[in-house]
Structures are given as C-alpha cells and as structure tokens.
C-alpha cells in the first residue's frame, strides 16, 4: 500500500495566529455583526482559530474605504514609480517572512510545507515584483485618425476591484489578482475563501508595513453567498475578478450583470487532458502525468485529470503509473519529504470518496488507493483508475482530488475529438517527441494553455485562463494587465475651429 509516513501526532507549526479580524481602511476590526467562524486544520479537523465573519455591512464598509482611497487618492494620485516601490518593498518583506507565511498556509490548507516555502511563496514574491515592474510602464497610444485630429488613448484603472479567491492556492491567487489590480492604480476589496482566510490577512498587514496607504487593499473574510455575493452585486465596485468553480462563476457573473454590469474576469474549473502519444518517453510521461494530477492533493483547476494514453504504450504506462502512485509519500504536511497532505475539508473529502466509489461502480479498474489514508483528518490514498471510459462520471466531472483516470486511444484524430468533448477548456498536456504531432495537437486543442513535454509551468509572464466554461479573460503576464485597465480615447482638433 501507500508509502506511509506516520500521521499519529500532528506536528505543531510553532507559530501563533495573530490576526483574525477584517482589514478595512488599514485597520483591524471585528465584523459589524460581531460574528466569527472557525477555520480548521485539515490534518485533524480541529479548529485553528475563529475569524471575523464579514457580511453585507462589512463589504459596504470595505467598498467605501476603497472608493475613498481611489477617488480622493492617494493611490491613483501617487506616481506609478511610488506605487511600484511600495509593491517592491512588500515583495521584500514577504520574502523575509516566507517561513511564517508558509507555515500559516500549510496549517490552514494542508499543503506540504516544503512546497509552500520553496515554490509557492517565492512565486508570489516573483509575481509582485513582476507587476511592480509594470506599474510605471503602462501607457496608451497615439492614433493616426482620419481628418484634422490628434487622437490618443489613456489606459486608466477601473476604480474599486472586487477580488474573490478560492482555497487551493490562497496566496498564489492573491498575487495573480492583487498584483495587477494595484499596479494599474486600482483599489481592492478582497474576499478570501472561508476555508483559508489566514494567510491573506497576514500578508496584507505586511503590505501596509511596506507603505500601502489605508483603504487601498481591504480584506474581508467570510462566506460566498453572503460576503462574496455582496461584493459581486455591489453598485460601487467597478470590476470583479473571480477564481473558483464554474457553478459559482455563473452566479457571480449574473450578480454582476444584474447590479451595475461591472466587467468580470473568471478563472473556473477544468478537466484537462494529458495526452501521451506513441512516441513519448514513457518514464518521463508517467512522472509528469503523476505530478500533473496529484500536485497540491489534486486540488488544481488545471489538474491533468484525463490521462489519455496511446494503445501501443498503454499497458506499460498503467503499470508504471500505478507503481508511482504506490510510492507517493502521504503524511503530515509539516514533515520533510512529504508529497501529499490532507484534502482541504470534510466536504471535499467526502465528495472525492464518492467519486472513487462511482468509478468502481461504473466499471473502471482500480489500480491503487481508493480509500481514506490513515484514520484522522482528510487524507486520501493516491488513487489510480485505468480502463476509464468517457461516459463515466470520473471522466467528466472535476473531482479536485488525488484520483488519476487513465484511458486508451488509437489515433490523433480520435484523441483530439475526445479531448475537446468537454464543456471545460483550461489546459492540456501533450507528450511526444514528434514536432508534427505536437503542432497538430496544439492547434486542435480548445484550451487556454498547452504544455508540451512539461506541465504546470507558471511563470509570472505567461498568461493563464480558460476556453469555454473554464473562464473568460486572462491572468498573469501582459494579458493580465488589460483586465484592470479601461481605455479612454481623447480627441483634440489640430487647429481650433
Ligand atoms: P469551492 O466549491 O471549491 O469552494 P467556490 O467557487 O464555491 O469553490 O468558491 C470560490 C470562492 O467563491 C470562495 O471565496 C467562496 O466563498 C466564493 N463564493 C461562493 N459562493 C459565492 C456566491 N454565491 N457569490 C460570490 N462568491 C461566492
């Protein structure tokens, strides 16, 4: 069975939770209602801390603070260079506090500490430096219009941005949204996920220590249908950016439309194909397919959750994929060498086990795993199914857990058709040594990212987003800036009439 690191006694992260209040107008305050909600350690189900539960009234206060900081300054009135320097100072501070921040993130989310400290927080730091670099390089064009007019475009911030993030990468997705929003001169109200409120509060305090003026970045913890919905339908929010499930994305978009038609960027679910062609290096493909699915406990919107393998290498691939899953090291995410921690919460845990049962019942072959790992917390054994058919639930739905589904294909035409037969279109992996095969698949796949002989490469400069029901708009890179800017055309006669 799975290589087990004992999970008897959870390791104490040796930090305290100092901040659990809402951060509005540069101040820590309680929710207007006085209510709090528990945030839970996924290793045990124990409460880590109780956090202020923001609702409509708190969102109103946060939006008012952000409105004032935008309309009366100082944020949009500062020079772009000054804004950039505050963002750079924040990146430095965050880097200095990597250890504490990574500990908080692991405690609240369950992801391996080493990954948080060595990969994720450095990516967050990098993202803020990347967008700090853009702050003073945003400009419009002069436009050669017909007639006697001088025409220019100004690229201006929207104003108050409502940012709603999920629990799978709390700080990484914070950086994908807060970074470009602030670089462009907007002010922000951020609604964190109710499962993982702690890290955003902590780092937003560091942002203020770096010199961020009050009201520019407000953080509201709370639930989706209350705080999230209040933000989405607020008449004084000028732009929304949401990452989460497709079902909730539809609600958020409808709330935006029904209120003030604020533009919405959506980064939603996926069921991404990972295509292993007949000429692929099988050992490398097995390893990458494994990490494409199991990374972050399988809780990635772009998880390679449909492993499609050419029939000529299928048997070898299945055997090696099973062996790799059996070697995966599951255990307390604070322990060194751990590859997989617990799932985020009891709801996701039960949902994943239900999908596993449905896979078995629908006739897929269970190669490994299939059950809870240990007896405490929300750990699940790395699970591999082979012989998966396209009409099975596990081949269609986003499972968001450590469950790999492998199926066989015969030729490229077939695999393109099957890969595209999904309402999602977030990402795809293509494994081949043949440039022509790579080119053919790249052009044919209806997805926002194609990774060829690699997976999950997330440089700050590379745009990310979905085709079809995986979302609209792009984040990161130069494309991510345009989500936070609106264009103003300015027309002047060359000679006064
Ligand atoms: P998941 O199902 O993985 O928890 P969701 O898409 O429901 O994902 O959650 C992503 C974010 O959206 C969270 O911050 C959540 O609180 C928020 N959210 C959930 N429901 C709503 C809603 N009705 N309106 C606005 N935000 C919501």
TrEMBL record:
Active site per UniProt: 267
Keyword Oxidoreductase: yes
Residues covered by the Aldehyde dehydrogenase domain: 29-490
This protein's UniProt keywords: NAD, Oxidoreductase
Reaction(s) catalysed by this chain's protein: an aldehyde + NAD(+) + H2O = a carboxylate + NADH + 2 H(+)
GO BP: any one term: carboxylic acid metabolic process
Cellular localisation: Mitochondrion matrix
Enzyme Commission number, as recorded: 1.2.1.3
Top-rank taxon: Eukaryota
InterPro entries: Ald_DH/histidinol_DH, Ald_DH_C, Ald_DH_CS_CYS, Ald_DH_CS_GLU, Ald_DH_N, Aldehyde_DH_dom
A molecular-function term among this protein's GO annotations: aldehyde dehydrogenase (NAD+) activity
Primary location group: mitochondrion
Gene Ontology cellular-component terms listed: mitochondrial matrix
Sequence similarity: Belongs to the aldehyde dehydrogenase family.
PANTHER family: ALDEHYDE DEHYDROGENASE-RELATED
Free-text function comment from the UniProt entry: Possesses activity on acetaldehyde and glycolaldehyde in vitro.
Protein's name according to its UniProt entry: aldehyde dehydrogenase (NAD(+))
């Amino acid at each position: 069975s799975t290589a087990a690191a004992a999970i008897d006694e959870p390791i104490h992260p040796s930090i305290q939770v100092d901040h659990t209040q809402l951060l509005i107008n540069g101040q820590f305050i309680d929710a207007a209602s006085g209510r709090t909600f528990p945030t839970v350690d996924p290793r045990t189900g124990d409460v880590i801390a109780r956090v202020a539960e923001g609702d409509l009234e708190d969102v109103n206060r946060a939006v008012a603070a952000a409105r004032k900081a935008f309309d009366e300054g100082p944020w949009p009135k500062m020079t772009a260079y000054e804004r950039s320097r505050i963002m750079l100072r924040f990146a430095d501070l965050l880097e200095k506090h990597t250890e504490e921040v990574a500990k908080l993130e692991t405690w609240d989310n369950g992801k391996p500490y080493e990954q948080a400290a060595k990969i994720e927080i450095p990516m967050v730091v990098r993202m803020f430096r990347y967008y700090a670099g853009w702050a003073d390089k945003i400009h419009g064009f002069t436009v050669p219009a017909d007639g006697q007019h001088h025409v220019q475009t100004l690229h201006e911030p929207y104003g108050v941005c409502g940012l709603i993030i999920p629990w799978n990468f709390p700080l990484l997705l914070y950086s994908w949204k807060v970074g470009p929003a602030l670089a462009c001169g907007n002010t922000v109200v951020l609604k964190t996920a109710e499962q993982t409120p702690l890290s955003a509060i902590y780092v937003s305090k560091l942002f203020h220590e770096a010199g961020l003026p009050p009201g520019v970045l407000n953080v509201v913890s709370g639930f989706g249908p209350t705080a999230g919905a209040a933000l989405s339908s607020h008449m004084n929010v000028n732009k929304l950016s949401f990452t989460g499930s497709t079902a909730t994305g539809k609600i958020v978009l409808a709330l935006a439309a029904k209120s003030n038609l604020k533009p919405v960027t959506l980064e939603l679910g996926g069921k991404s194909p990972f295509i292993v062609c007949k000429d692929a290096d099988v050992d490398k493909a097995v390893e990458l397919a494994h990490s494409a699915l199991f990374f972050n406990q399988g809780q990635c919107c772009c998880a390679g959750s449909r492993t499609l393998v050419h029939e000529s290498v299928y048997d070898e691939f299945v055997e090696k994929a099973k062996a790799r899953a059996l070697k995966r090291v599951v255990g307390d995410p604070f322990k060194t060498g751990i590859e997989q921690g617990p799932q985020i919460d009891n709801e996701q845990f039960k949902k994943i086990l239900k999908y596993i049962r449905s896979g078995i019942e629908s006739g897929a072959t269970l190669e490994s795993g299939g059950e809870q790992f240990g007896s405490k917390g929300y750990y699940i054994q790395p699970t591999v199914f082979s012989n998966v058919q396209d009409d099975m639930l596990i081949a269609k739905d986003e499972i968001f857990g450590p469950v790999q589904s492998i199926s066989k294909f015969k030729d490229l035409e077939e695999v393109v058709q099957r890969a595209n037969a999904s309402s999602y279109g977030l990402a795809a992996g293509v494994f081949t040594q043949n440039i022509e095969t790579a080119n053919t698949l790249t052009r044919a796949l209806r997805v926002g990212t194609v990774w060829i002989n690699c997976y999950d490469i997330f440089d700050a400069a590379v745009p990310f987003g979905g085709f079809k029901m995986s979302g609209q708009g792009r984040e990161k890179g130069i494309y991510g800036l345009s989500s936070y800017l609106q264009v103003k055309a300015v027309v002047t006669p060359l000679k006064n009439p």
